[in-house]
Predict the 3D structure of the following.
Amino acid sequence: MFRLSTALVVMVVLLIQGCSDQMELHRALLEQDANEVIAELADKQVSAEKKAEKLGITVLVSREDMARSVRILQAAGLPRQSQSSFGEVFKKEGVISTPMEERARYLYALSQELENTLSQIDGVIKARVHVVLPERVAPGEAITPSSAAVFIKYREWLDPDVILPRVERMVAKSIPGLTGNEDEKLAVVFVPGKSYEVKAPMVQVGPFLVAESSAGLLESILIFSLLLVVFFGILVVFWYKPELRTNITTKMQQKMAIAAEQQAAKNTAKQQQTATEAKVSPKS
């Protein structure tokens, strides 16, 4: 009974320690965002778990995978930045806004909507849109025409030349006064995103820094090479110094002769002891 209780206590302690090794990678995520994060980490051989909380989903990873997980998600642009819609920006709050505030909110909502749409294109990691609408800077001056600048960070396998015409057409049709002036008033910049490369852990083997998976093979090669050098060194010594070879051979012969003499003496003593015991023992 005591052993069973001890085993249960040990299991509970190990379970608590295992749980404490996990750290929060992201919290308050939507279900879809959390699934994308876990899927991306799984592709890079990193185990992650979801935990439902009041504010959303929390993603947990082990302590040793924390730094690598952060770099993986940064390269993938995850979790995606939440975008505000027109309805969220212009929701009724009972506060009267000035025309300038309304204009700023409209520009922000328009940019957010375009960014959200561009982010849905396969291969797009991140999209930013900056919009300028027609505005008269001062009375009597010409109206500043509409313009827009688009920044797209994409995955390596996406061809920007393929989606560029569609991006320009979509943005131009979404911003008032920009249609027909795409060549002068619309700038689209594509920046390739660098994917995270899984690097094998490195270990030091003597003077060499090698991957952990190759450490055992390198150690075997080094040991075999060392033994080979020692063996050939002995052969060289015997070849170029015959007197040393003669001395070693003589010493080995002497040791063998001494060992043979000692063995013969033991055998003689044993025979004498056996004969003595036979004389002393009573006749049957």
